[in-house]
Amino acid sequence: MGRCRSCGGILRTDYDDDAVSRLGNIQSGPGIDRYRVLMPTSVEIPFLGEGDTPLIHSRRLGPTLGLNHLLFKNEGRNPSGAFKDRAGALAAALALECGAAGVLTASSGNAASAIAAYCAAAELKCLILLEPGNPPNKLRQALATGAQVLPVNGIFGRGPEALQKLLTEVAARLNYYLAFVWAPVNPYLLEGIKTISYEVVAQLGDAPGNTGAPDVVVCPVGGGDMFAAQWRGYRELKRAGVIKKLPRLIGVQSLNAPPLLEAFRSGAKHAPSLPSAASKISGINVAFSGDHALAAVRESGGTVAGVADEDVFAMQARIGREEGVWVEPASAAPLTAIPKLLAEGVIAVNERIVCIFSGAGFKDSHLAETEAMAINERTPMGFEVEEIIRSLRAH
To answer: Model-level pTM greater than 0.85?
Structure first.
């Protein structure tokens, strides 16, 4: 579905010069629908509040790490709490346009939540196939917005070709639109995700002295769609004359699930699938990335970094305590990689660096779970000032 039948390459949408040139004149509007001229649909894209997520200047971590211009694009502020809402909104529009009875996807969590929500908004049925053992909060979101959810053993463990075959056949039998958020299966959904880059450039342009694109964009990478989609967006912005230079893109993967990292380091022409993935970070625990992500790294002059799971969890805690933003573990992976990138000279202290926070902390809420349970089990103190003060000093 998402590959050329002749060469096997990943398909991508293309737009004429007139459509791309309009990027410089797009005004504010509801969600990603305002960019529909650069979307593969003529149907109005359902709006639940997606997009326009904040770009935040780091208050403490940036200076601590020695960076003068570190920013966070907080995609956890989307309606279902993750960047996948941008894909989910477009998936619903595409399903409506083709007259599908519903939408099918397979997901580790964030895509399920997003697509379920937008199907509900568009009055479409939604079927989610998932691997058993996903974070319960992500599963609850999909169920709360009316999706049918079926656990399937080994759905992500048999390789991308087997998964695509299964999903294609199920979608055809049900007359459902196949909205698996991975370009080799459905390249169109990246067009919703690329709007992250449109917003970053617009938000940088609103700040004094900050015009044009960032110097570096650092992203967590699983299948590679958010990574590759942003590269598409920045290239379109340059083609439109909105920016003069392109950023370098840096992808970050868990050392326990590093398909893109291994492909990049080995100089491979393609990003092959690994036999398995064993990361504790649910959002990026995948055994396959894609050639689109590998191309984005190389074309942008970027790189791929690997991080240890425990270091990511430690950084997740720091982001909450030092920046006031509760992110899911995958969101902390980019910032975890930065000290080493800085030490190796891959990034410089005065560059404008944007880290993508892919999703909100409630998505995978193990952070502080033990402490929260302990507090609930603790004998409450009396309604006394002195007792409260004594307790604070004791802890």
So the answer is: yes
